[in-house]
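I would like you to sit down with the record closing this message with an eye to the fold:
=====
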Amino acid sequence: MAPQLAAATPAELTDHLFSRFHKPDTPGCAVGVLQDGKVVHQKGYGMANLELAVPISPSTMFYLGSTSKEYTAMAVLLLAGQGALKLEDPIRKWLPQLPAYMQPITVRHLLEHTSGIRDYIGLWTLSAPPEDAALTDRQVWDILLRQKGLNFRPGDEFLYSNSNYFLLAHILRPAAFRMLPDFARERIFDPLGLRHTLYYTDRFALLPHRATGYTMGKTGAYRINSATLDVAGDGGVFTNIEDALKWIGVIAQPPQPYAAAVSQMMTRAVLNSGDSAEYGRGLMLKKHRGLDIVSHVGGLRGYRSELLWIPSKKLGVACLCNTSDADPGRLARGVADAWMGPAAEPARPKVTPAELRRKTGVFRDRNSGDYLQIVYGGGRFLALFQGFQIDLWPETPMRFRAESPLSFEIEFEKAGERDEPRFLRIESESHRRVDYERVTLDRKRPADLPSFEGDYYCEEAQSPMTVRIVDGMLNLEQHEEQIAVLEPMQADRYRSATLNLQFLRDSSGKIRGFRLNTGRVRGLDYLRVKPSA
């Protein structure tokens, strides 16, 4: 901490954290702090609307994105509490139009992100929609009903997918005889006094005090980037700091009839393996400074949000932003630190260089296709993963963690003379035992590389792709724009920061397509439309 801040008050430290936003020519954030049941800080930093010079205030309305899942989970759990549905109900009991391969999936799997259903936003993005394209319920249904399989067997993994909470919203309709926005208003928002919280599913409707979402453009000027999803469940909620702090108070000390639902929200997902995830039902259950925290983060277009509760400190933080370059998770934790005071550096076990070298190598996940490289040199123990270079710090000699630039945890098991990665947690994005194989990189240019070029199409994603050789490297393109340079990893296997491709050959050895894995979407087959001329 800078010397001039050593004697600063928590409010002054909070102002310092948000100083880069506190200007008349930039969007920013609204921040609120709840301590011992009392609002001790709420303030706006930056502008709600740059064109009209409207500053952000505690009454400014922000789109929550995925933080909306807290309210959706509450709605479903209230219904379960009154017996209108059961968490172990197969989802096809309520949504029989879903394909038969989804029969094993239950309501609980949806709540806990353990269903294996592909993420509809990831699928939609692969179709290369226009920058300002909107997405409606009907379009999401079309996407989901085109899918022919799951990412994994239900319950095997935790893998975040917006499709889960979209489907929960539609289960609520036959179970409650209400649409989610109406049910939430009648059973959650109005009874709890959340007068400025609503599911907003008509992007053309007027919304008083709404902040405009922004993204920094390539020229360095802000561009409007507001929400264009008329979808409720996985997102859809607008709220302000005043109501967000009231909601944190409900999570902290739930009144009846909400207490049982909040308890269920804080119940960790248990996988088929017996491992528990860092996610409950609509809440992320993590740690900060060794303390249990309850939170959810959200982001879409030019909006970002985080609601955070630290039970042992009776401290809550809400951070709502209208610029896509804000990191509300980091900011909210910084605010929490300001109000809790400085913390001692954690004691770390000593791990010898020889023990670290046992863990190095290149590994490929047999399920997702992701590559993980563990390296040690220059005193640094690093994971190279999905384009990130992550410094790993030991919690035990076999378990390592990082919080920046990605919240990442990896656990090793002894395997003869080497230690192999066996457990991986990424952000609150993925949590699973991993089936890694140690591999040797093969960077050689294949003799038939020109035969990889051509046009490909995936029916499930309605996604065209072109593979082209540029400067000796395979490039992936859509609509004549480069989306990735593909790095060779092994024979017929390539990757970019977030994409993993395995080219597929027919019985004669000719390229017939490729299989794509990317984050929340796995196993998409792109078949050759025509080879390059």
Summary: The chain has a mean pLDDT of 93. The first strand starts at residue 29 and ends at 35. The longest helix spans residues 162-176. The radius of gyration is 24 Å.
